[in-house]
Amino acid sequence: MISNSEYSEYNFKSMTDFNATNQTDLIRGETPVDIVDTCLQLCKQYLSGVWTQQTVDTIEVKRITGGLTNHMYCCRIKSGGEESPQTAVPREVAIRLYGRKNLITDGIDGERLSDIIIGLMVSHNGLGPRVYGMFNGGQILAYYKHRHFGLADQNRPQLVLQVFEGLARIHAMDVPVKREHWFFTTAYNWYNIIENDTKTQTLVNELNLNALKTHSLKAELNFVKQLVDKCDSPLVFCHNDFRSVNIMVLEDSDCSADDNSDERVLFCDYESSSYGYRGHDLGYIINEWGRSLWDVQKPHIFPLDSTLIPLIEIYVNECRRVLGNRFTESEINSVRHILIEMKIFSLVCMMSGVLILLKNDPDAGDALDMDKNLTMHIKKLTAQKFDCICKVMKSFGEYQ
Questions:
Q1: Looking at residue 209, what is its pLDDT?
Q2: Which of 179, 383, 388, 396 has the fewest Cβ atoms surrounding its Cβ within 10 A?
């Protein structure tokens, strides 16, 4: 029997409590005891310059969040003279150490060649962090002081412009990786794992999760697929995790909070990137428009068309600038068509989140590295989110 007492360690009264916890508890795995020496040796090998003079006592290594699978560390020289501009050797970098890849979009488990290709290309195009070094187990990147693109930033026109122009440039990239749709093959595999997971099924019954007891997860997934097939979203290069946590507003400029005209946006965490449905990225970012990623218990209300259309117009105008006038000659690239894509793929992204969290088993080899009690509590909250999705789907009859 599973009882609520098993979740006492994470007895959140609301998602506000969960949001406060996730900043620390969701850092993945243990920090290696020799991490300072590991980072030092990497910086000596790939950065050279002033780093060759450092020891474990003259550098500082701090663990920072690195997504659901990787470890990320800020490594900096504690003190000393500045490097000359001619050498351009940074004194502070981010070191990303790979964990197990959670979302496999190319069908090859453990494959990192695409990460190298994509990381170098987005860096070169100014769409991702500068790359200082790449090695078998990770990357050395520029470290940026930043904040995540938040609710307040959605009302700052210059930042919004950068977000949607940047997304247009990502989608316009010509990247030498596999060009095929992967999402629904993966989604049905996730569904099969959930269906055969006795722990999740027991959780549904013991906690009386009505949404999962009264709705067929597979039927809802089938419905979403029918919507996607009919909307004919083009195959483009996608970020695939285009959420606020992966949009950095850089804080290195001297602008004040009231005058943010010089602030710059930069995207990060391209680990899941691949070719896929154009609507995927649009759905992810719009799911957070006017709300927080963690607002699971808050009723999901889509932004008004009057809010979405100006965002789409920014995207379309930048696509036309990059790809030429031929882009807007096709109905599939019209504002109306992309508006439909946004709404349909907001459901796709919500369904994706439900499947990923419900399938996660801390005892499985490919699981997210997360505390077992926290995993089960998140599954409970995810069931509430699924109930919200089922209600939202009823409003999509116009697209059937």
A1: 72
A2: 179
d(CA 297, CA 284) in angstroms, rounded, equals: 18
As a three-state string, the secondary structure of 80-135 is: CCCCCCCCCCCCEEEEEECCCCCCCCCCCCCCCHHHHHHHHHHHHCCCCCCEEEEE
Query: For tokens 């989604």, what's the residue?
Result: 187
Q: What whole-number distance in Å separates Cα of residue 377 and Cα of residue 84?
A: 52
Residues near 394 by Cβ (< 8 Å), separated by ≥ 6?
none
CA angle 75, 79, 83 (to 5 degrees): 85
Are 124 and 169 in contact by the 8 Å Cβ rule? The answer is no
Q: Is the pTM of this model over 0.90?
A: no
> For the chain, how many residues are written?
400
| DSSP designation for 246 | G
Nearest to 368 by CA among 29, 24, 107: 29
Candidates 233, 235, 243; CA nearest to 163 is: 243
* Whole-number Å distance between alpha carbons of 246 and 67: 9
DSSP string, 147-173: EE--TGGGG-HHHHHHHHHHHHHHHT-
Distance between terminal CA atoms of the chain? 41
Mean pLDDT of all residues belonging to the chain: 81
Could you give the angle at which helices 372-393 and 335-359 cross, rounded to 10 degrees? Answer: 150
Instruction: For residues 38 and 54, give the distance between their C-alpha atoms in angstroms, rounded to a whole number.
Output: 13
Domains observed in the chain? 4-28+145-399 (3.90.1200.10), 29-98+101-143 (3.30.200.20)
Closest Cα partner for 121 from 173, 166, 83, 73?
Answer: 173
Each residue's pLDDT tens digit, 268-308:
999 899 999 999 999 999 988 988 766 666 667 789 999 99
Q: Which residues contact 129 (CB under 8 A, 6 or more apart)?
A: 94, 123, 141, 142, 144, 266, 268
Following DSSP, what letter does each residue of 253-312 receive, concatenated? S---SS--TT--EEE---TT-EEEEHHHHHHHHHHTTTS-TT-TTS---PPPHHHHHHHH
pLDDT band at residue 366 under the 50/70/90 scheme = low
